[in-house]
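User: quick one
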Amino acid sequence: MSDKLAATKACLFNIVINIHNGVRADYIQGVLDRIIDKFPCRVIWINTSSENKDSITLQVKENIANSDKSLFYDKYIINADCASSPKVPLLLWPILMPDIPIYLVWARDPTTDKVILPSLLNYARCLIFDSDTIQNFEQFNAEIQKDLCGLKCDIIDMNWARGSGWRNVLSNIFNTHFKIDELQKCNNITIQYNNVHTCGCKHNMTQALYLQAWLAAQLHWRFLNYTESCEKQVLTYDYNGHQSTVELVPVENEHFTSGALIKLISSTDEQHTFCLTRKNESPELIHIEISTNDRCELPYAILIQTMTKPFSFIQEILYNPSYEHYAHMLQVLTEECRSSQQLAANFIN
Amino acid sequence: MQDFMNTQQFVNPLEEPSHATKSADPCIIVIFGATGDLTARKLIPALYNLAREELLPPHFACVGFARREKSNEQFREEMKNAVNEFSRIKPVDEKLWNTFCQKLFYHRAEFDNDAGYESLQKQLNKLDADLGTKGNRVYYLSTPPSYFPMIGQMLSKHKLIYNPQQVHDKWSRVIIEKPFGNNLSSALELQHHIENYLDESQIFRIDHYLGKETVQNILVFRFCNLVYESIWNNHYIDNVQITVAEEIGIGTRGKFFEEAGILRDIVQNHAMQLLSLVAMEPPVNLSADAIRNEKVKVQESIKPIPLDQMERNVVRGQYGPGIVDGKPVIGYRQENDVSPTSNVETYVGLRLFIENWRWAGVPFYIRAGKRLPKRVTEIAITFKQIPGILFQTSKRKHEANVLILRIQPDEGISLKFNCKVPGLISSIQPVKMDFRYGSYFGLTPPEAYERLICDCMAGDSTLFARSDEVLASWKNLSPVLDYWQNEKAPLPIYSSGSWGPDLANQLVESDNRKWRLP
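Assistant: Done. Structure below.
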C-alpha cells in the first residue's frame, strides 16, 4: 500500500490500438512494451473480430510502467465483434484523456476500416499502421493519398519507420552535390534483404521495395520496367536518358529480422562504388567501403538506428513523421505496381 | 553574385525534413587532467552512457592524459569503479564495459613536457590506424584554468591541433571548463592567448547548465507556447528571481573556492546563462550563432551598476556555523584549506536591470549561495498584481501569479494562480498547476555532460558559451569584484541553513518585494 501511495499515475498521451482477429497482436504488444518503457501513457486496446454476436466488453487494468514500480498507467481493453463495432467509439470518448495527444496504432489496413477509425482521425495526432496488413496496395495508396490530403493527423507506416536507419545513413553518406550526382548516375544498385520467413512478417521484400522507391522518388528517376530473374527482382529507371537498374536480392540470414536490409551496393560506369553492409557480428553498424578506379577510402562504420532500440523506435514513430517522403515513395511504388502486375502480385503476396 | 551562389546551402534530397541527422564523427577524446574528480564523476560516466545509448561513434577512443604513473589497465579499473559509483544508470553492464574499456587509454606526461606531447602524437596516430578515428580530436581541458594557455601552446607546437582554414579532412576541437578567467582582464588575456592557436569554431566553452534538459526546455517553453511569449515583458511581469542554492558547503574545494568565490563559481556563468535564456529575444533560427547572438544582446543590455549604488544592488555573505538538514555544520572559515580570516563570499544577491524595450523597469534578482536550507535551482517569474477591483473583501492583496521553472531537483514547471475556495463564502486561495518531468516522461534524462560531449563530437556549438558572451558577462560583474576588492564592502556572516544574510532581504524589500521561498 505504501508503495502504491508513493507511485505516480503517468500519462504522456493516449494510445489507441486496434487488433483485428488477433492478427499481429504479439508484434503490436512488443511495440507497446517499448513505448511504455520510455513514455508511460494511457492505453486503449481494442480487439475486434469478424463474428456477429453483437457482444462488447470493457475492462480496465492498472499496470506498472517501470521496474521500480514508481509509475503506473491505465490499460483499457475493449473486445467487440463485427456487429458491435459501431459502439466502440461511444465507449472511447469518455476514457480518452483530454488535452494530450492521441496516437492510433492500427494493425489492419486503415483504409478498409470505415467503422471505428474515421471518428478518431479528426482528433488523433498520428495514425501508425503496418503495411504488412494491406491487401490491395493500389487501392490503399489511392485511399491514403486522398484521405490524407484532408487529414489533420500524421501517418506512419511501421515498415517505413523500420527503414529510417538506412535512409538516415544514406543521407549522411551522400551528403554533397558530388556524391548525389554519383548516385544519380549509378548504373546499378543492389539491395540485399533478409528473406527468412517468420509468422510475424508476411512481406519480406517491403523494406527493400520502399528503399528503392524512396531513392527513385527523391532522385527523380522515371520507372521503366520490372523483371525477375533467378529470384532477383530487377527494376529499371531512367534519369535524363541514363538508365539505372536496381536489383533486389533475397538472402537468408538468421541474425537479422525478416525483411531487414543487409547490404546496398551502388556502382557507376567509372567504377565508383559505395558498399554499405551490416555484419552479423555488429548488426548495429553499417560498414562503409567507398572506392574509385584508382583509390580506396579507408573503410568506416556508422551506427544505424534500428527499431530494436526503444528510444529510436519511439522517436521515429511518435516524433518524426515524414509524410512528404513517404507520400512521394508511395506514389512511385503505386506507379510501379500499376505498370507491372508481376510486381504488384509479388508485393502483396 | 558568386559569393552569394557559394554561400547557398546544399539541400540534400535524401534528408528527411523532420529528422535531425546530426551524428558524432569518429574521433579521439583526450582528457587532460584525467586523474581528477571531473573525469571520474562526470566525463567517463557520460561516455559510458553514450556508449550504452549507442550514441558514441563506432570509431572512438578516449585517452586520459595526466601526471600520475598509471597503466591502461589501472586506469580502466579505476574508471569502471567510477562508472559504478557515478553513472546515472547502475550497475555497469559487464558486456558493454568490456567493449567500452578497450577504447580507454592512459598517457602519462607533464603538461609542460615536449616529449610527452610527442609520445601523445605517436599514440594518437596509432589509434587512428587501429581504430579508424580519422585524425579527429577533442581535447578536454579538465585542469585548472592556469594550464589552459600552456596546453594550448603545446598542442599547437606539436601539431596536435589543426588550422581549419588549411586542413579540411579532419578536425580538432578544444573543450575548456569554467571559469573562463577570474575577471574581465584575465578573461580577455585568456581569450587572446587561445586565439593564437585556435579559431573560435574550435573552442567549446562548457557550462554544464546548458546541457540540462530543463535549461534547454526554457527556449522551447518560451518560443513554442504563444500564451507565455505574449505576456513575457514588462507590461505583465513584475520581477524575475533566479535562485541557485546549495545545501552543501565547499567540501574539499577549499583551495579552489578561496581563489574563486561564488560570484565567479556560479553567478558569472550558470546564473547569467539562465538570465540570458529567460530574457533573450526569439532568435532568427535555431542555429548556434543565432541563439548565442541573442544571449549576447541580453548581456550587453544589462545596466552597469554605478559604484555609488553597488551596496544597494549587490549583497554578499559568508556562511557561518548552523544547522543543515537537521545536522550541525561548521562555518566557512573552519573548512579545510580555508583561511580563518577569509573574506571570500559564499553568498551573492544581485539586482540587475535589462535596458531594452521588453524589460525596462523589471528587476532581475539573482541569488546564489552555499549552505542554504535546500538544494534548488529555479527561475520564478512573478507577474503584476491585478487591479484589485473585484474579489477584494479585505485590505490584503491577492497573490500575484508566479510561473516557476524548476531547473533542479524535481524538474518541472508550475504556475501559481488564484482560485475560489469551495463554500458559501467567496474566499480566494492560491493554488498550483504543476508539470513534472518525472510524471510525464518515464525515462531518465541524459546527464548534461552526455549531451554536451555528444554535441562537441558532432560539431554543434549551440550549447557552449561563445567568447563575446563570456566577456560581456565579465564586463557586467568585474566591477563588483573590483568594488569588493577595493572598498572592503560588508561581508556579513549568515547561519548555515538560513536563506542568506539579512542584507539580502533588504535588497528585495526595499523594492516592496520579497524573495520567494522555493
